[in-house]
Amino acid sequence: EYKTIQAKRDLLDNEIQEKWLKGIAKKHLTNRIDELSTKLGLNYNRLFIRNQKRKFGNCSKEKNISLNWRLIKAPLMVIDYIIVHELVHTLEMSHTKKFWTLLRSYYPDYKDAIDWLDYARNNINEAICSFISENPDKLHFMQKDNLNGSTPRSWEQLSEHLKISMENNVILEG
């Protein structure tokens, strides 16, 4: 069973959907980095939500972190991995052995997120549906209210599910 969301804008229009998702991403990613930064004791200076074409995140030597708004389309395990990855760069800028040891200590399941990112590299939208279909045991959706917990099997179903989940302030979880 799916919920209908009443909106004054057509969320199926790509430009409107992108603008809407950018707003959701800014709110969610800001909250999430603040939660993880506090929980892990890893401080950063400023957060920027960007429209990067090839990167999901970046950390400058000034400890400014940039996150790609498209992360909002990824499972929470991937969002958390990217955020923790960038937060670890506030301690160790290069991908040294020390960096990976620190990352593993803060986020032991980081390899699952890397596997998902490798899978999704070419087209995150199509990859989400394929990954869910092929690996239903690795991904689930946290839902509230009367949502029945069914796994979306198409981009249209996933898109509708994302709208419902975000309307209920629930994001994909891994």
Task: Outline the structure in words.
By secondary structure, this protein is mainly alpha-helical. The protein is 49% helix and 6% strand. The protein has six helices and three strands; from the N terminus they run H-E-E-E-H-H-H-H-H. The protein has helices at 14-40, 76-88, 97-106, 110-120, 124-134, 155-167; strands spanning 47-50, 57-59, 65-68. Strands 1-3-2 form a three-stranded mixed β-sheet, with helices on one face. Strand 2 and strand 3 form a beta hairpin. Helix 1 (14-40) packs across helix 2 (76-88). The radius of gyration is 16 Å and the shape is globular. The two termini are 22 Å apart. Mean pLDDT is 77; it is low at 139-155 and 163-174.
Could you list some keywords that capture this structure?
three-stranded mixed beta sheet, mainly alpha, 6% strand, disordered C terminus, 174 residues
Task: Draw up the topology in text.
Elements: H1 14-40, E1 47-50, E2 57-59, E3 65-68, H2 76-88, H3 97-106, H4 110-120, H5 124-134, H6 155-167
Parallel strand pairs: 1-3
Antiparallel strand pairs: 2-3
Helix pairs in contact: 1-2
Give helix % range. 40-55%
Q: Strands of the largest sheet, in order across it?
A: 1-3-2
> What is the element string, with H for helices and E for strands?
HEEEHHHHH
pLDDT < 50 stretches: 139-155, 163-174
Counting helices, strands and paired strands, the structural category is mainly alpha
Radius of gyration based on Cα positions: 16 Å
For the report, how would you describe the main beta sheet? Answer: 3 strands, mixed
**Through-space gap between termini:** 22 Å
The count of DSSP E runs of length 2 or more, i.e. the number of strands, is 3
Number of helices: 6
Quaternary status of these chains?
Answer: single chain
